[in-house]
Design goal:
8-stranded parallel β-sheet, 278 residues, 41% helix, alpha/beta, 10 helices, binds pterin-6-yl-methyl-monophosphate
């Protein structure tokens, strides 16, 4: 199967949540036809990958049944793939990942890093597609109970290395792997900022690094005023700022709801680094 997509800049992964309850765009794209159209729109805006998810991972979210998840994502992936649009499948279930890849999906994005489903690593090995391992400790319903670290950067790096080794032991090739510090997953705002500050240490592992900060709660807290945290649709400029900095720190890709803003951001980072020479 294909290798990890690359460009001369940080890639932009557009978010397409086909869920009823994702925190920032939940419920908007539940209709399959609408979801396909939104995926096309993100692609037209210049997304390099469309990340299709059928189960919300927002803090506190309940799980959906496997067949519901499959039924949500497969028609969307099949339609987008038929138009030559590169997709990833955002799932913690091996059966969903397999159905998605059978429908033409190019990348597995497992927010549990292979932990939630004991068959995920062997399935990724067999399917032989790029495989994103995110740092994760527990399903969303309980994950904030596990937001405790001695040193968040050291601990996340060690736990990701364990996930990498488990994947390799199951037959996944090193060249398939992408790592992600998992912003907001069993993490406080302070943990997220410490991880972002240390992006270069993740890049130094040699694995491509995905940074997914888009519209997350820690940005709402950063931008809070007397009325409370800034709501998700007011977090776009902050998201783009993070995309610029993540690109400058050497991230392989950023995951974003507003593709155009993050594409501009990573393009600025490339121009800054190259002195304007594209
Ligand atoms: N975050 C969300 C969903 N999928 N995938 C990866 N690899 N990394 C993440 O941090 C991540 C993810 C949750 O955000 P959403 O509800 O806005 O999609």
């Amino acid at each position: 199967m294909g290798g990890i997509p690359r460009a001369d800049r940080t890639l932009v992964m557009g978010v397409l949540n086909v869920t009823a309850d994702s925190f920032s765009d939940g419920g908007r794209y539940l209709d399959v036809a609408d979801a396909i159209e939104h995926g096309r729109e993100l692609w037209r805006q210049g997304a390099d990958i469309i990340d299709v998810g059928g189960e919300s991972t927002r803090p506190g979210a309940e799980r959906v049944k496997p067949h519901v998840e499959t039924d949500r994502v497969v028609p969307v992936i099949a339609a987008l793939a038929a138009e030559g649009i590169l997709t990833s499948i955002d799932t913690t279930r091996a059966a969903v990942a397999r159905a998605a890849v059978d429908a033409g999906c190019a990348i597995i994005n497992d927010v549990s890093g292979g932990l939630a489903d004991p068959r995920m690593n062997s399935t990724a090995a067999e399917l032989d597609v790029p495989y994103i391992l995110m740092h994760w400790r527990a399903h969303s319903k309980h994950m904030q109970d596990f937001a405790s670290y001695d040193d968040v950067v050291d601990d996340v790096l060690v736990e990701l290395e364990q996930r990498v080794n488990a994947a390799l032991d199951a037959g996944v090739r090193r060249e398939q792997l992408i790592i992600d510090p998992g912003l907001g997953f069993a993490k406080t705002a302070a943990h997220n900022w410490a991880l972002l500050q240390a992006t270069a240490r993740f890049v130094e592992t040699g694995f491509p690094v995905l940074i997914a900060a888009s519209r997350k709660n820690f940005l709402g807290l950063l931008l809070a005023d007397e009325t409370g945290p800034r709501p998700p649709d007011g977090r776009e400029d902050a998201t783009a700022a993070i995309s610029t900095l993540a690109a400058f720190a050497g991230a392989w890709a950023v995951r974003a709801h507003a593709v155009r803003a993050s594409l501009d951001a990573v393009t600025v980072a490339r121009a800054w680094r190259n002195g304007g020479d594209r």
